[in-house]
Fold this protein.
Amino acid sequence: MSQPGWYPDPYGTGSLRWWDGQNWTERLNPEPLGPPRLRPPEQPRQQPGQDPRGQEGYYSAPYGQRADWGRPAVPPLDVNVRGLHLHADDQAVSYGTASLAWPHVEWVAYWAAQLPAGYGQRPGTQWIFQAGRFPFHGGPRVEVVIEHEALPGRPAGPEGEPERIWGRLIELCQTYAEQRLVTELAGRVRAGESVDVAQGLTVHPGGVRGDRVSLSWSAISGATVDGGRVWIRQSSGSAPVLYVPQQNPNAVLIPALLTLLRR
């Protein structure tokens, strides 16, 4: 796909997104009026004293950042994805020849992309996970793309349920990297610094600003991750007034960061 034009949005908004010939831009047609109401996968009922991670079908935060840090240690992940070894534990994440220790991770991103038919690919879903160091373009990173079934000419898919593997990877990231990242960002803001988060949102001691909109802390009711975007809502209404694409670096940290700073 090299010709600029409007194509089905690979990030699942249901709109068309403008491809400039090299990259997906932020232009959508039509522009969504609000977040689509996606339901996360249902989790099985948990018996008293039972650890849900051991249940089949358990998914760890597939649509966004969770705030239940402090849970027990997360079991390591050790599988093959697209013919490459994926391993993540309490120390690091590695995929193929790329590896990063969690304490060195400076940004994270994860999202589900709906693939349209055509352009040499089958329709379906890709579950994408990224973690890296700045600069975002050019710094070291680990990137994992998981699919239900391989595309033509590619190796077989990963062992087990792709979304479940993706969720386990997110859970490890949240436990061993995201808590530290959110705490560090909040500390910088509380010290009087303005911090750029997710390449489109500035968080500062008085509130947030982005896309020609500025909100004080008293005007913010919270943020949610939905439909491939992180939506920030006003206290005075239900409609979101700011959004950041979920695939932007550290966009998934915004809900927890705003919750921490609004306390």
